[in-house]
Amino acid sequence: MSIKIDKSLILSKIKSEKKFKSDAEFARFLGIKPQTLASWHSRNTFDIELIYAKCNYLNPHWLLTGEGEMLNNGNIINNVNSDNNINIQGKGNKSRVNNANSELLELIKKKDEQIAEKDKQIESLLEIIKNK
Question: In angstroms, rounded to a whole number, what is the distance separating the alpha carbons of residues 46 and 112?
Fold first, then answer.
């Protein structure tokens, strides 16, 4: 049993989310001819790899099935500046980013401690081998 996915509707929702006023404008963004986009709509298909490459903020599950949230975690990554700071739009994302940063920093600290302990063990083992 196969489930019919309305890929034309998915394309329309992406176009709407990107605020394109015409299919031609959306096609230019995707780097395809307007006729190709029209064909995708009429055949209920699209190039999922191309769509995801151009819109990597989309939830892959939604893109494949049309189910769930359209956007990954309700966030849109707008750009990464030269200092590697990411600008994000979305609901409550500042606290989520801060929490994620804190968790990552704590994890890095623990891993650094584990590495230092392993370095000590290696030095001890090398000393034992050297003295044999």
Answer: 45
pTM over 0.85? The answer is no
Cα(110)–Cα(94) distance, integer angstroms: 24
Average pLDDT over residues 104-113: 78
Determine the 3-state secondary structure of 55 from DSSP.
coil
- CA–CA distance, 102 with 45 (Å, rounded to integer): 42
With contact defined as beta carbons under 8 Å apart, do 24 and 36 qualify?
Answer: no
User: What SS3 state is found at 121?
Assistant: helix
| 116 dihedral zone (left: phi>0; alpha: psi -120 to 50; beta) | alpha
125 occurs within a structural domain: yes
Q: Are residues 31 and 59 located together in one domain of the fold? A: yes
